[in-house]
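Design review, sub-item: ligand-bound model
Attendees: FS, YL, KQ
YL presented the inputs for the flavin-adenine dinucleotide complex:
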Amino acid sequence: MFERQRPLNDRERQPGPVVCWISRDLRAEDHWGLALAQQDALERTQPLLVVFCLQTAYLGALPRAFSFMRTGLSETKASLAEKNLPLMILEGPPQDMLPDFCRLASAGVVYCDFSPLRLARAWRSQLAEKLSIPLIEVDAHNVIPCWLASDHQEYGAYTFRPKVSRLLDRFLIAPPALLSHPFSLDSQTRLDLLRLDKREKLPLAPDSSNAQPQPGSRAAKAALQSFIRERLALFDRRNDPNERAASGLSPWLHFGQLAPLRAALDVRGPSAQQAAFLEELIVRRELSDNFCYYNPAYDQFAGFPSWAQATLLRHRGDLRPHLYSLDQLEAAQTADPLWNAAQRELSASGQMPGYLRMYWCKKILEWTPDPETAQADAIFLNDRYFLDGRDPNGYAGIAWSIGGVHDRAWGERPVFGKVRQMTLAGCRRKFDVDRYIQSVDAAERNEHG
Ligand SMILES: Cc1cc2nc3c(=O)[nH]c(=O)nc-3n(C[C@H](O)[C@H](O)[C@H](O)COP(=O)(O)OP(=O)(O)OC[C@H]3O[C@@H](n4cnc5c(N)ncnc54)[C@H](O)[C@@H]3O)c2cc1C
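KQ shared the predicted structure:
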């Protein structure tokens, strides 16, 4: 289990309390970072403090994403408190807030979780530099720690899958449950730290409005169990948006309110549907982390494979059937009724069926002046509106749709070149497009009474 962790600096260990800073994995259960931090604290008879650094803005997310995260965090805070583990909320960038916090706590070591994204990595590397104690990173998100699954950017699922298969038995193991922690801070340090704690920024009770889905680890576990009972058997129909056969777990997975490991352990089994779900949950999802971790241009044209860059450059000047501004796209004002319905569903609910995400993004390539604009507009809309946006899956999904990442070359077409194209006629052949549009219309009518 120590394979899951690695040091981010070479500072010497000090005798004080253990701090665990969580930023991507915001749950109390099935959390390898917390489990390893607690084991360390127990061995050294030290208190364990859990910290979260709240930001007022993050990659363009709408307030509903913050609300989902903060409500989930208040449940996590209560669950940790039951184990005598205080969760402190600091406000500001982690690399600015944590060094002072650690000095005040006389901390001996800091644990943190892992993210492959640029901003999150910059926080960690600046923090590692500023701290005078060790910073230890634990991949609490991926089933197989990202840096162990592969040591380079994978070409596609076909190259990544065998590596995952080889390592799965070694890593598909739940961490030990947190124990009630026997060591507490002395009362003066506790009082000093409480002055920094912005706990009032968390909602007092989980938001029980009818917004879907409900935030928090309890709701996540309920959603996982209901998926296993009611929809897993239909999983091979997930490409039909009318079936709603996919799990719908991505918002909880994104905010770390549900561990992918937990979903994998509860779903695994011999059936084709179980295998198909694990392929999405482990191979495809962890391939996105691999892409963002090893490709610094994961959100830029330069991050596309060279064949895709070449073909897109060759077709740069092709006549586009329509050109829409970002405002028109955002307002779902295109000539394509399926695309508009998908965009309206996204604006209203923060979600969109997986199959339509591909169509939605590929159309943006067709309707903007060049691939760079298409990628920037898609990232803006994805990160702003999707509840699970701002995630490696989003950057990889957009790079797949527009830039052929993890895909292969197809027959050459206008605008797309050899990048795979999707059309409205193709969608009509696959599923009942009108029924989907009607369902979005009906949801809007319900919403407006
Ligand atoms: C253009 C585009 C943008 C996307 N943006 C995001 C995003 O912002 N956030 C996000 O989490 N996913 C994104 N995806 C990936 C995928 O569409 C969603 O993860 C999936 O639709 C979520 O629904 P679900 O939980 O019901 O998935 P299920 O089909 O039930 O799959 C279970 C889990 O497996 C993972 N998964 C499924 N499909 C993929 C995939 N293609 N790539 C990587 N992981 C996958 C997800 O974690 C998902 O929750 C995007 C895909 C595309 C093509």
